[in-house]
Amino acid sequence: MQFCSACGKPVALKIPPGDSLMRHVCESCGTIHYQNPRLVVGCLPIWKGEILICKRAIEPAYGKWTLPAGFMENGEDLAAGAIRETREEANAAVRIRHLQSVFSIPHIHQVHVFFLADLIDGTFGSGPESLEVKLVKPADIPWSEIAFGSVRFALERYLGDPDSTCAHIDSFKRP
Ligand SMILES: [Zn+2]
Q1: What residue ranges define each of the domains in the chain, with the CATH number in brackets?
Q2: Residue 109 C-alpha to ligand 1 middle, in angstroms?
Q3: How far apart are the CA of 106 and the centre of ligand 1, in A?
Q4: pTM value?
């Protein structure tokens, strides 16, 4: 960040009084511009024992397979964001079962959260950010073409125990 989004003047990197970390501080209007991790929310959608996966039509990881997920929006809760992303990316309506996995990725300032969910009527299709959307049997998961560590983690946990509820892992501490 170079300029204050409140007043347009240059910002400086400094530790504000009472804080312990460097922040972008506007020396003109005094606004402190905090930067915090972003939440990515999504679903691990199930239909008759198969898992709904999406082939990415956007970077990063263009052409790799992922679960429907994306950045949470202001004004929605986690589950609402996961349902919305599943509708947008896979044209699928889901009913949330429970929180399934949480994956912290400190070096890119993101936390990825997945819910186990059921497709409501079994219908789905490609949204604008997906090249292809399909149901796969657990044995047919394309492990060598999975887009992200968080997706791999969620899928591995599901295969290990389909009913397992939320586990949290820090990507750096993953074995
Ligand atoms: Zn300012």
Answers
A1: 1-35 (2.20.70.10), 38-173 (3.90.79.10)
A2: 24
A3: 28
A4: 0.88
